[in-house]
Amino acid sequence: MTDRLASHMLVSQLIRRVQAAGGFATVLRKGDPISGMILIQALEKGEETGLFERIGGLDNKAELVPAGKAHWGNKDEMAQYIARRVRSDPDIWIVELDIPEAERFAGETLA
Questions:
Q1: Cα(22)–Cα(2) distance, rounded to whole angstroms?
Q2: Highest mean pLDDT pick, 39-43, 55-59, 71-75
Q3: Residue 42: CATH number of its domain
């Protein structure tokens, strides 16, 4: 068994880093505080730039991967995708980041 930070701690750390860099970050949906999956809705100046998910790799290291990429750029389809994810995994966290290079911030903090 490997040690890893709880989901709520990772989310808190990510929000603090983004806000310290002058960006905006908020939790849109709280998931399981210990082991909930984390879905990042990335924006830049209010425009969606992607959706990313933290997953565990085979080497026990977490990584950030694109999620729902076929729906990027279509707000309605993206909202439907997120709703499906919530229905299939009620423990999921959804975090919105509005900062340049949101994927980088999330990757550095969550991986």
A1: 33
A2: 39-43
A3: 3.40.1530.20
Give the angle 28-61-39 at the CA atoms, nearest 5°: 15
Q: Which of 21-30, 70-79, 82-91 has the lowest mean pLDDT?
A: 70-79
The Cα–Cα gap between 106 and 63 comes to 10
Q: Residue 58, exposed/middle/buried by CB under 10 A (0-12, 13-18, 19+)? A: exposed
Q: How many domains does the chain have?
A: 1
> Is 90 domain-assigned?
yes
Residue 71 within a domain: yes
Domain coverage including residue 16: 7-110
Tokens (6 digits) for 61? 């290291």
Site of tokens 């990510």 = 14
- Domain membership of residue 2 (yes or no) is no
In a domain, 1, yes or no: no
Q: Give 2-49 pLDDT, tens digit per residue.
A: 567 899 999 999 999 999 999 999 999 999 999 999 999 999 999 999
